[in-house]
From TrEMBL:
This is Cell envelope biogenesis protein OmpA. The keyword Cell division does not apply. Keywords: Membrane, Transmembrane, Transmembrane helix. The keyword Kinase does not apply. The lineage of its organism: Bacteria, Bacillati, Actinomycetota, Actinomycetes, Micromonosporales. It comes from the Bacteria. The chain crosses the membrane at residues 53-80, 86-108, 117-138, 144-162. InterPro entries: DUF6069 (IPR045713).
């Protein structure tokens, strides 16, 4: 920030006028750093979305792979009398992590500290996502497997997206 009240600072950095002057303006380059420009193709939003999508794919593959390995190890994938499909692990990971990415894009446009709000919200939602796994009629190892896949997906997606948000 410039210490010269009312004078522009270096090119590309924020400029400010004193609050008493009634104008306080920041020139920020992208949504990930707090821009409210509304440009859907701003570089940081592309970075947020692109990085988020990569994390979602990695998390989907990871959860399906964990379920595959668990199945090979003899852990039952039967819940409520029906076997869970490996593709179901990946699909639900994509759906819910995708909702998390949408949340991140909205927060980046609307709140002052999007990273903090995103991390707190997604951690709370991850904890809540474990509750059905505790209650589902399935074996203990199956329930632990389900909870583990939630935690793995969250451990991949949350930090990847959070790194791309301003704080």
């Amino acid at each position: 920030m410039s210490t010269n009240v009312g004078r522009p600072s270096a090119v590309g950095s924020p400029t400010r006028r004193d609050i008493a002057g009634g104008i306080m303006s920041d020139t920020l380059d992208n949504i990930g750093q707090g821009s409210r420009s509304g440009n859907p193709f701003a570089p940081a939003r592309k970075s947020l979305v692109k990085g988020g999508l990569v994390a979602i794919v990695v998390a989907a593959v990871a959860t399906a792979l964990i379920a595959f390995i668990a199945d090979l190890a003899g852990i039952s994938l039967v819940v409520m009398g029906a076997p869970l499909q490996l593709s179901g692990f990946a699909m639900l990971t994509v759906i819910f992590a995708g909702l998390g990415l949408i949340l991140a894009v909205i927060l980046a446009r609307t709140v002052r500290r999007p990273r903090t709000v995103f991390v707190r919200t997604t951690i709370a939602l991850t904890v809540l996502s474990l509750v059905p796994d505790l209650l589902v009629p399935a074996g203990t190892l199956t329930r632990l497997l389900l909870m583990f896949t939630h935690l793995v997906a969250a451990a991949i997606v949350i930090p990847t997206i959070a790194r791309r948000l301003a704080d």
